[in-house]
Design brief:
The protein is α+β, with helices and mostly antiparallel strands and 91 residues long. Helices cover 44% and strands 25% of the residues. The strands form two sheets. The chain has a three-stranded antiparallel β-sheet, covered by helices on one side. Strands 1-2 form a two-stranded antiparallel ribbon.
Length: 91
């Protein structure tokens, strides 16, 4: 979620996966997938930047979590480990 500011200076958090589009006319209007419109103080460029930063943080956190997994915890490696273990028992 990204934090934005309404025109009356109240803060709100928006799930950026629900944003359909953002436009400036002259205020910044965010249209959500359900048709709801939000008017915020931030510029279109700032909203886009915040969405990019949020998504970058999600990808970065996922990469860190993935790098901390052991080989047995990795889905692509677990199948190979199980197959070799089964081969040892049968062989």
């Amino acid at each position: 979620m990204i934090q934005l500011t309404r025109l009356n200076n109240t803060r709100l958090a928006v799930n950026c996966d629900l944003i359909k589009y953002v436009e400036e006319a002259p205020d910044t209007v965010i249209t959500l997938l359900n048709g709801e419109k939000l008017v915020v103080r931030e510029t279109t460029a700032d909203v886009i930047l915040r969405v990019r930063e949020f998504r970058r943080s999600i990808i970065s956190a996922d990469c860190i979590a993935s790098s901390e997994m052991t080989d047995l915890e990795r889905p692509e490696r677990a199948g190979a480990q199980n197959a070799s273990a089964e081969g040892d028992v049968r062989g």
